[in-house]
Amino acid sequence: MRFAHLHLVALLFLCPAAGWSGLPENARGSGENAGHWQPDPMHEYWDPGTYHQPETGPMAGRFQGEECLECHTVVTPGIVRDWRESRHAKSAPPVLCPACHGEDHQKLRLPTPRTCGECHPRRVAQMEEEKKYGFPGHALAMERAVDSKHFADKPKAEVASCLQCHSVATKCDSCHTRHRFDPAEARRPEACLTCHSGPPHPDDEAYFASPHGQRYLQEGSTWDWSRPLRKGHYPTPTCAYCHMKDGNHQVADKAVWKFGIREINPRTAENTIKRKRWLSTCADCHPPEVARLFFRELDTERRQAWGKLYGVEGLLKALRGEALLRPSARERPPYPMDLMARLFPRERIGFYEGQASAFYNVGAIERDYFEMWYFDNLGAFKGMAHGAKEMSRRFHERLDAEARAIAAKARHLREGKGAGTAEVDLAPIWMDGEYTRFNRDNN
Amino acid sequence: MRFAHLHLVALLFLCPAAGWSGLPENARGSGENAGHWQPDPMHEYWDPGTYHQPETGPMAGRFQGEECLECHTVVTPGIVRDWRESRHAKSAPPVLCPACHGEDHQKLRLPTPRTCGECHPRRVAQMEEEKKYGFPGHALAMERAVDSKHFADKPKAEVASCLQCHSVATKCDSCHTRHRFDPAEARRPEACLTCHSGPPHPDDEAYFASPHGQRYLQEGSTWDWSRPLRKGHYPTPTCAYCHMKDGNHQVADKAVWKFGIREINPRTAENTIKRKRWLSTCADCHPPEVARLFFRELDTERRQAWGKLYGVEGLLKALRGEALLRPSARERPPYPMDLMARLFPRERIGFYEGQASAFYNVGAIERDYFEMWYFDNLGAFKGMAHGAKEMSRRFHERLDAEARAIAAKARHLREGKGAGTAEVDLAPIWMDGEYTRFNRDNN
Amino acid sequence: MRFAHLHLVALLFLCPAAGWSGLPENARGSGENAGHWQPDPMHEYWDPGTYHQPETGPMAGRFQGEECLECHTVVTPGIVRDWRESRHAKSAPPVLCPACHGEDHQKLRLPTPRTCGECHPRRVAQMEEEKKYGFPGHALAMERAVDSKHFADKPKAEVASCLQCHSVATKCDSCHTRHRFDPAEARRPEACLTCHSGPPHPDDEAYFASPHGQRYLQEGSTWDWSRPLRKGHYPTPTCAYCHMKDGNHQVADKAVWKFGIREINPRTAENTIKRKRWLSTCADCHPPEVARLFFRELDTERRQAWGKLYGVEGLLKALRGEALLRPSARERPPYPMDLMARLFPRERIGFYEGQASAFYNVGAIERDYFEMWYFDNLGAFKGMAHGAKEMSRRFHERLDAEARAIAAKARHLREGKGAGTAEVDLAPIWMDGEYTRFNRDNN
User: Fold this and answer.
1) Is B130 within the bounds of a domain?
2) Do A229 and A298 have their domain in common?
3) For A104, which DSSP code?
4) Across the interface, which of A75, A161, A434 has its CB nearest the CB of C393?
5) How many interchain CB pairs under 8 A, A with C?
6) Cβ contact, residue pair B198, A284, below 8 Å
7) B12 in any annotated domain
8) Which of A218, A315, A384, A412 is the mutation pick for testing B, counting most B CBs within 10 A?
9) Which of C378, C355, C376, C382 is nearest to C366 (CA)?
């Protein structure tokens, strides 16, 4: 019996391409703009619930877990070893391969949060509950990606980059290392940092620039990570300790500052409650008055950052009034699927008038403002919020420099010197450029 | 008795704000410009010797250490656990909470170096001794921060970022993890890197880009950090191994190159002695001739860097002579407290004529030079000094690029094209801008 | 006997400079341009086979290994301890100091790959075999450095930075930590990352931005690194696991994409074989179809990147045709040793026409293209190839921004506005500038 399997394994390597069926030619996108885009083959793996196609290779038959292991100990020993070290392997009875993947080797599944929720309903429910707090958040990450217009219109090769992280909403092994699924690993900062690093969310950089992060680097390798994320269990907080206290998979119920992407009123009833939740977390180690001061400093930093952003936003709106923003709404190509915008072009500036409008397809001065808001402002917030004040200060210097550069460009434009200069030119990418052409050829 | 305490704890959470007295409304700044600034509430914690106000919450009474622990094991179990693992807890008799904080819960102290010096006089004396070498250094870090004019005039929200690190002079737990205070932690690079990273002091980046740092990453988690920083105890050096050999808390007695911020003559008697101290440290592992070559290369790198800086400084001075530097000294607003500068404005360029003058409140071309000196030059130095030569090369490329850009701007200015262009404009921030306005409103 | 040695040690410290002979005044360069450059003193250590000069200090005599250890346990205890923990120390008979360094203390050698090859012929042969795949690669790293014209003409202080990494070809302890030489260390990513980080080869950044790298950070400190790099031994791959499978010291036999520096045809017979080698490595853990998709995405990313690069290259060639590229080939100073180029100047753009031409000594617009190709393009490749897609996306944004900026500069040039502007000016460094002057004075 065992040899028969090994024979099939050999076959698998001889016809390596045969096993893969892939997405059908006419696979449709999902979400609001479903008709306007086609999934990339890799979408199968980032959103398996929607797109996964079972492989139909030479291996056929229904297998119980022990049979799976017999072959895969040879074929993919690493993941088998990971599984053997997992709680899945050690429970009685063990949770074997078919529990998540099915028994029929011609119809294997990739597990989705729903699959995991069969045994872990509370954690999946917590994550789902997050939706009531809106975006940004984990639970809506995939929806928001595929529903945004620039997703439908961008080269698939590029949006695939987004999905690797946005798949946090559609598969649990974005955070939980398969096939070990050890909470001890999910509790470590690294579980979060594959996604939470770099602009516009330098949480990685902020954490490790803070005393908390440095202490983790000093001691983390000696901590007992099997302990739940509870008061007194860890000498210094990690991402999950503060944001997923007690393993709560709902990370939005303390999200006072909304990731820094928009201004919030810290005094609303909701934010007062959220802030109390934060203060109670901080009080695990710090005197409450220190935490309170700290948040007050964060409020000040935010007020200061938004002061800078609004100043520039006002300037851009004035330029628009003077018809100096080019390309103007009429000149800009609307998103291909965007019929209404074609008929009634509308100029949008900044976050409140519509984020995506400032993302691509705008003149250099608007793109600058976008980067000021999305990269520098968020860096300033992330630094301050994580106790890396010097990092925050650095990003404020960048905000200042950007504001000055934009003011100088505005002066140029008003003096009529702007046309054709490097500072002002930026070909709208949806009309003619890499994006549109690549899109036309490849999507 | 125990229940009484827990009752009070509950009370503490019910009236969370009551416990904090905070800085009085009329608290004064300290240092040279004391009359010109007010401390931010957080100053209490960065410079507790000067500013800490005891909290006057509902908890009243005098407590001996065992009583403190009774409550705080519940209220803040993490710091209690840290203390229990400390030498303070294990000595006979143990050093209990009141030794550092006092007994009266209405008059609790935050410890200062003076507090620590009662038991650790040698270490505190070593740090104090550092003052004779001048700035930069740890012991003078707070004085230099609050005595500089731009400190007094900048938004408090921003200078608070500076104090988090500059508090190294005013509290020992900037480096020593409270409440464990384990030398094993202070010896690790991470103890230094919360502050020593990013521009203008990328020691973090330099160390980890060097073979020393990479070897620490490979093996550090297996080293016995309880061993003193002595020859033969560690396979590769860390920050403290070289800069605080044998635990010496005086880090300036080998500071030949002065952090890279000014040119030094490597052949003075003082620097010859300091260099010998370095060579003897390197000789713990390397043949002396390799270390000597290495320092010769560092001298060459420094000469090269200063050649680049002086070239640009000369150009700026020539522009000043031609009255092309705008704003000029007369046009620039002096620091608000700077009466003499108001009467007798003086144009300063570069480090030797006064660092702060080039920091803020200058035209773009001078700010460029400032960044060239403070960010690129220091990056070039830090890389070379720590054996990360490729990093140093990279910063030299930046110095070259900056020098070329400044030369092009100078040509612009001379051709009369400069006025109003993006390259040249930079609103002086002390006259009108974020700083002055924020300051006026918030300080 | 022992005391006699200690006496000599004391002597060694009393006359520290006497021991070093150093390179002779008239030492010649090596390689194609040997006559045009002189080695820097540090070259002794980066290419010991060519340049090492034995020290002729006060220590004289021939020593057997045990005698060496007697002194050096005191003089350099760290490296002795490292050796004691090495397999060299534990084998029977032990491999003692003279095996690598010789016995005569006045004629000590630094070991070269040849020295190591006496006992480890297979590993050294594997590395040598790499040469048949051409550059880039480890085995040719030093040749390519010293044979390139800009090497011969650059300040030695700068090329020394290159040699620290390029010495991978001329000494084994670039990767293997001396004197422990533990394969367990060479297997760790850090062994590679001293060199493979930063532009133009951000492998460090790419690996740690990927799920592979984050998992290493989570678990790496608990892995048994003494296990060979074989299927099933490691839960997640490291640099060496994929690139040096089974310890193979030939890293070029899977190099389909050639480091990203030039466009490759993924469908050649050679690349099909190389790709199969990759797929088989990925299949240690992943279903082959996922790896295949992944490589298809990488091909797409490469096609996209080269589309961007060729677009700009075409633009530059058009500008050259219009005589708008300044300095032109005739205006540019040729490399000092480059007689033919002096007689027949030839304008080269981009990689295929000759890389070095675009590196230095060109106008700003060509330098921009160089940076686009060498920094942004390579960053985009490294990110994608290592599973850090978001990093790749970020570098594609930079490619787009650079392409737009270059297009704007081209428009400037065509409108006659370019001359003398900051964007276009760049003093050719071989004619007049830091390089030539520093070179003249110091080389």
Assistant:
1) no
2) no
3) B
4) A161
5) 114
6) no
7) no
8) A218
9) C355
* B215 lies in some domain: no
Query: CA A13, A18, A21 angle in degrees (round to 5)?
Result: 130
Q: What are the phi and psi torsion angles at B180 (to 5°)?
A: -95, -40
Question: CA A56 → CA B122, B145, B352, distances in Å?
Answer: 74, 69, 75
Query: Do residues C47 and C170 lie in contact, with contact meaning Cβ atoms separated by under 8 Å?
Result: yes
Distance (Å, whole) CA A407 – CA A414: 11
Q: Which of B221, B293, B403 sits opposite C221 (nearest CB)?
A: B221
Cβ distance of B55 and A289 shorter than 8 Å: yes
Q: Enumerate the residues of chain A whose CB falls inside 8 A of the CB of residue B80.
A: 232
Chain C residues whose beta carbon lies within 8 Å of the beta carbon of residue B392: 161
| pLDDT bucket at A3, cuts 50 / 70 / 90 | very low
Alpha-carbon A48 to chain mean position: 17
Query: What is the tally of structural domains in chain B?
Result: 1
Separation CA B332–CA A184 (nearest Å): 58
**A292 contacts in chain B (CB < 8 Å):** 16-17, 20
Q: Which residues of A touch B193 (CB under 8 A)?
A: 214
To which H or E segment does residue B368 belong?
helix B364-371
Residues C44 and C177 in one domain: yes
Cβ pair C425:B404 closer than 8 A: yes
Kindly determine whether residue B215 and residue C190, on different chains, have CB atoms separated by under 8 Å.
yes
Query: Are A429 and A310 within one domain?
Result: yes
Rounded (10°) CA dihedral C191, C192, C198, C203 = -130
Q: What is the dihedral of CA C205, C209, C215, C218, to 10 degrees?
A: 70
Residue A285 Cα, gap to closest chain B Cα (Å): 5
How many angstroms separate the CA atoms of A9 and C283, rounded?
12
State which of C167, C198, C216 marks the end of a domain. Answer: C216
In this complex, the residue of A211, A231, A286 whose CB is nearest that of residue B194 is A211
Q: Which residues of A touch C412 (CB under 8 A)?
A: 420-422
Whether residue C289 and residue A434 make contact (CB cut-off 8 A), yes or no, is no
CB B171 within 8 A of CB B44: no
Contacts for B209 with CB less than 8 Å, ≥ 6 apart = B383, B386, B388, B390, B391, C194, C197, C198
Closest CA to C394 of B420, A200, A6, A50: A200
Domain final residue pick, A231, A253, A275: A253
Residues of chain C found within 8 Å of residue B214, distances taken between Cβ atoms: 190-191, 193-194
**Yes or no, beta carbons of C283 and A76 under 8 Å apart:** yes
B307 domain residue, yes or no = yes
Chunked into runs of 10 residues, chain C (443 residues) has average pLDDT values of 42 42 79 83 92 87 95 94 96 96 95 97 96 90 85 73 92 94 95 93 96 94 94 95 96 92 92 96 92 93 91 90 82 68 69 56 82 94 95 91 86 71 50 56 53
Let me know: does A126 contact A248? Beta carbons within 8 Å. yes
In whole angstroms, what is the distance from residue A349 CA to residue A317 CA? Answer: 7
Query: Domain span at residue B312?
Result: 278-442
Question: Long-range contact list for A408-411, CB < 8 A, 24+ apart?
Answer: A408/B420, A408/B421, A408/B422, A408/B425, A409/A364, A409/A365, A409/A368, A409/B422, A410/A315, A410/A316, A410/A319, A410/A324, A410/A365, A411/B420, A411/B425
Q: Which chains touch A (3 or more CB pairs under 8 A)?
A: B, C
- A125 — pLDDT class (breaks 50, 70, 90): very high
Q: Could you tell me which of B332, B427, C398, B359 has the C-alpha nearest to residue A410?
A: B427
**How many Å lie between the alpha carbon of C348 and the closest alpha carbon of chain A?**
25
Q: For residue B210, list chain C residues with Cβ-Cβ distance below 8 A.
A: 194
Strand partners, A93: none
Predicted confidence (pLDDT) per residue in C42-86, tens digit:
899 999 999 998 887 788 999 999 999 999 999 999 999 999 999
